[in-house]
Amino acid sequence: MSIYNYLVAKPNGEILSMQTYKDQVMLICNTASQCQFTYQYEDLQKLYEKYNKDGFVVLSFPCDQFGNQNPEDGLQTVAQCKGQFGVTYPIFDKIHVNGESTHPLFNYLKHEVEPAEIKRDTMQSKLLYSTIEEHYPDYLIGNNIRWNFTKFLVDRKGKVVARFEPDDSILDIEQAIQGLL
User: Active-site residues (predicted)?
Assistant: First the structure.
């Protein structure tokens, strides 16, 4: 199976093939509109603006599985992201990233690259880990998505090459993107 075999839904109901992004470097991210990491919408937008001309795209998939931090529907999420954060990269319909209802694309992504251990060397990472441990301990096991703003980097051939946790440095992510462009 290849990443290009998956279909995704836009908030308006239109179905899109991942084939649309063939030959592009992709950063695929599960997002949430009311999360402590929501500031990353702006970071992702800056990366998109800086590298889109070189064949890079950010793909955002809203998810409400972590503390109900994206209660809006897909269309409301798009409107909020555009209005509040200036997002112009593609935002898809809400999905699940863990459990029995996991979207097939995310099931594929999370089994292509092993997650790194969550670092607990900063206040933010300690808070993230303790929140997951308290509310979603099963998400610390296996390949589960642990929280909003987990990112997967995909090369131009469709190979998933890296997984970034929500508290990973945007500078490290940018360096990895540059290496693929």
Answer: 35
Does the residue 154 lie in any domain? Answer: yes
Write the pLDDT tens digit of every residue in 30-85: 998 777 677 889 999 999 999 999 999 999 999 998 877 778 877 888 788 788 88
Q: What separation, in Å, do the N-terminal and C-terminal C-alpha atoms of the chain show?
A: 24
Which residue is associated with the tokens 């998933």?
160
Q: Is residue 121 part of a domain?
A: no
- Tell me which amino acid residue 172 is: D
CA dihedral over 97, 116, 2, 17, signed as positive or negative: positive
Say if CB 44 and CB 60 are below 8 A apart. Answer: yes
Going by pLDDT thresholds of 50, 70 and 90, the confidence category of residue 97 is very high
For the question of residue 35 being annotated catalytic, the response is yes
How many structural domains does the chain have?
1
Q: For residue 138, which amino acid is it?
A: D
pLDDT of amino acid 114: 86
Contact 61, 103 (CB under 8 A): yes
Burial class (CB in 10 A: 0-12, 13-18, 19+), 172: exposed
Q: Residues 29, 35, 63, 81: which is the catalytic one? A: 35
